[in-house]
Design goal:
single chain; alpha/beta; 5 strands; 55% helix; globular
């Protein structure tokens, strides 16, 4: 007799493969173009997210900062805004959790830099505040979100939607996109 969880596994894999098939190549190409320009022009790339998306942001920063930069010039100038726990907790405690990314950006961000935000719902207040400030400063903003995309889907200057409302599949889609981008830079010498 087949185990009950086998059907769940099959359904999850099937739904995830279907979601992956809906990701547009042009969206991924757009991210590559934005990052190629940032690297060429020595602009900073900031990445951030909450929860599982924070882990995705950290992973992507490592892929760009190490994997796509070692032995290459120019290197990526990448910073993950959710990686400094003391700074995050100080800002969250002393100001508000909605300020944890924007206040860091105010220290480093300048026109022409890139901010990549990852939010499954698209409604995380700390992501929204960071994108609003970045937009006002001439920083290129890219939002990765799910459907319907929330406020992030409205305000990011560039956006990618995962065609799902299931958080697991949204996160799977974001990881897939950022792996493709990261490995494009790791496996293609300019």
């Amino acid at each position: 007799m087949e185990k009950k969880h086998i059907e769940y596994i099959r359904q999850y894999l099937s739904s995830t493969l279907s979601m992956a098939g809906e990701i547009r190549e042009s969206d991924i190409s757009m991210v590559i173009d934005i990052l190629e320009s940032a690297r060429k022009n020595r602009k900073q790339v900031f990445v951030c997210g909450n929860g599982g998306s924070a882990a995705t942001a950290s992973h992507f920063a490592v892929d760009l900062g190490k994997g796509a930069s070692l032995g290459r010039e120019p290197r990526f100038k990448v910073i993950c805004l959710n990686d400094c726990t003391p700074w995050l907790t100080a800002l969250g405690n002393d100001l508000s959790y909605s300020k944890v990314f924007v206040e860091q950006l105010k220290n480093f961000g300048t026109a022409g830099d890139v901010l990549i935000t990852i939010s499954g719902s698209g409604n995380s207040p700390n992501i929204i505040e960071a994108v609003e400030w970045a937009n006002s400063q001439g920083i290129t903003t890219l939002g990765l979100t799910g459907r319907p995309g929330g406020k992030l889907g409205e305000i990011a200057s560039h956006k990618i939607f995962i065609e799902s409302s299931h958080m697991g599949r949204i996160e799977d889609g974001h990881s897939l996109i950022l792996h493709i981008v990261g490995y494009y830079f790791m496996e293609n010498q300019d």
